[in-house]
């Protein structure tokens, strides 16, 4: 905890944003960090709540010891706070930027709508640790002689690789793209997290002995069996990439795209990588985004930065309540009205809205046909309307990992949702020496859940290889 009476004396204060009119002119991060003195004040608000729900099963998936590092910050012990934070989270500068902060929803002070600004404090600790040079490679003192391959360098793969290298194993990461990061790099826009944060972690991991192999699409460029034959263990840490297909009439019109190719293209441009596909650009266009989640919001913010004339976001769910019933839902994640920073930049939002199809002319999309829905999410006859659209993005989530290539070659069993089947204890698949973690195992989820799964998979692999492990779960 921080100051005993801090929560009574100090008001909650969050990071502010650059004005929308300024931030849509660039793709850089636009949050305005709090000064150190104010971060100390916010940490001081952490109360002696008895049971810290913030890092329990309903709060932080990686079980960050939030009251502990809040108290350390309050006492001015920033370096020890950074050490504590990194003991549970390999990449707090990632989660401090892109995590939706279920810890704050679970905070006891959230019963009064004034939770501790946990996410802000976490980012401040991580950023100061980098600035002060406290984060350095931590190579293992003793090598085990065991060799592990990690397929995929998203947050799950990176976390697992770092943990396994620190346990003394020889770790090789195989990444399909030219750079590491997975959706951290190619899905999340720079205005939410700039990519130099990933680059310096990769450099740190290389200093710890991790070897990165880029342009390696396992299952295409080389068979998975080659990795199984050449390593003591192989961890599948790819993403959940197969998009949900709404099968809309008119979906084949030019100008209709799944969200991810659009975001990947944009991130490649910002990263000075070549874009070899037909460009998808929103400049001068009326844009409609189908879907109400984070990916849809990322499309909204990207479209505004590219100069879209208008952006409308469609959500089949009804308008959520402005405020949740705390006594019914706390400390769980509540359904309530939320406005993302991208939506606040000028998006129109349509709730209780079904997408019936795409209208077009001469092979190009011209509009989206919609209707209001009832409580069963069924279209209500007579409520149809058409939204003008030159560009339509389908952002309704992902069904499962891609099965062709890697997964089919591996012969690993799948669960009923089409994910690679593996439990949360051993992370072992049905194939000997083959493990799975992250979105490929659990389905699409948060970055913080991917980090947790990568860490736990590393624990399980180290234990399987060595008979015992000192790696935390």
Note the main attributes of this structure.
473 residues; alpha/beta; 5-stranded parallel β-sheet; 18 helices; 17 strands; 32% helix; globular
Q: What can you see in these coordinates?
A:
With 473 residues, the protein is of the alpha/beta class. 32% of the residues lie in helices and 15% in strands. The protein has a five-stranded parallel β-sheet with strand order 5-4-3-6-17, with helices on both faces. A hairpin with a 2-residue loop joins strand 12 (353-361) and strand 13 (364-372). The two termini are 24 Å apart.
Question: What does the secondary structure layout of this molecule look like, with pairings?
Answer:
Elements: H1 6-9, E1 16-17, H2 20-23, E2 31-32, H3 36-44, H4 66-74, H5 78-86, H6 92-98, H7 102-106, H8 118-131, E3 147-151, H9 155-166, E4 170-175, H10 183-186, H11 196-207, E5 211-214, H12 224-230, E6 233-236, E7 242-243, E8 256-258, H13 259-270, E9 286-290, H14 294-305, E10 310-314, H15 326-329, E11 348-350, E12 353-361, E13 364-372, E14 385-388, E15 391-394, E16 398-400, H16 406-410, E17 434-436, H17 439-442, H18 447-466
Parallel strand pairs: 3-4, 3-6, 4-5, 6-17, 8-15, 9-10, 9-15, 10-11
Antiparallel strand pairs: 1-2, 7-16, 12-13, 13-14
Helix pairs in contact: 3-4, 3-8, 4-5, 5-8, 6-8, 9-18, 13-14
């Amino acid at each position: 905890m921080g100051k005993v009476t801090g929560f009574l004396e100090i008001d909650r204060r969050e990071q502010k944003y650059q004005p929308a009119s300024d931030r849509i002119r660039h793709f850089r991060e636009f949050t305005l960090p709090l000064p150190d003195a104010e971060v100390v004040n916010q940490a001081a608000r952490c109360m002696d709540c008895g049971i810290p729900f913030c890092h329990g099963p309903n709060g932080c998936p990686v079980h960050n010891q939030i009251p502990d590092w809040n108290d350390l910050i309050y006492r001015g012990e920033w370096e020890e706070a950074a050490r504590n934070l990194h003991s549970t989270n390999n990449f707090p500068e990632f989660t401090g930027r892109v995590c939706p902060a279920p810890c704050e929803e679970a905070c006891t002070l959230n019963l009064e709508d004034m939770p501790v600004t946990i996410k802000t404090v976490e980012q401040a600790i991580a950023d100061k640790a980098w600035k002060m040079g406290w984060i350095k490679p931590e190579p293992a003192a003793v090598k085990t002689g065991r060799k592990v391959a990690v397929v995929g360098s998203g947050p799950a793969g990176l976390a697992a690789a770092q943990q396994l290298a620190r346990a003394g194993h020889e770790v090789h990461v195989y990444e399909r793209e030219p750079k590491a990061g997975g959706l951290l790099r190619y899905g999340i826009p720079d205005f939410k997290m700039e990519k130099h944060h990933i680059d310096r972690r990769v450099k740190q991991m290389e200093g710890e002995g991790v070897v990165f192999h880029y342009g390696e699409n396992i299952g295409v460029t080389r068979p998975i069996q080659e990795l199984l034959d050449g390593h003591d263990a192989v961890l599948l840490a790819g993403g959940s990439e197969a998009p949900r297909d709404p099968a809309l009439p008119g979906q084949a019109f030019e100008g209709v795209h799944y969200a991810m190719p659009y975001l990947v293209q944009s991130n490649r441009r910002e990263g000075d990588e070549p874009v070899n596909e037909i460009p998808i650009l929103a400049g001068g266009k009326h844009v409609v985004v189908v879907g109400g989640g984070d990916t849809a919001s990322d499309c909204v913010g990207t479209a505004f930065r590219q100069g879209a004339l208008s952006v409308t976001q469609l959500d089949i769910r009804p308008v959520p309540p402005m405020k949740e019933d705390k006594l019914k839902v706390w400390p769980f994640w509540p359904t309530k009205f939320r406005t993302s920073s991208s939506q606040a930049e000028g998006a129109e939002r349509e709730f209780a809205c079904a997408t019936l199809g795409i209208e077009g002319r001469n092979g190009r999309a011209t509009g989206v046909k919609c209707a209001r829905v009832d409580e069963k999410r069924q279209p209500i006859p007579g409520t149809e309307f058409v939204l003008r659209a030159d560009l339509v993005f389908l952002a309704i989530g992902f069904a499962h990992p891609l099965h062709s290539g890697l997964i089919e070659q591996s012969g690993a069993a799948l669960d009923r949702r089409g994910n690679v089947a593996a439990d949360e204890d051993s992370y072992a698949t049905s194939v000997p020496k083959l493990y799975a973690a992250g979105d490929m195992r659990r389905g699409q989820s948060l970055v913080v859940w991917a980090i947790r799964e990568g860490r736990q998979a590393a624990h399980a692999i180290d234990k399987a290889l060595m008979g015992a492990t000192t790696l935390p779960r």
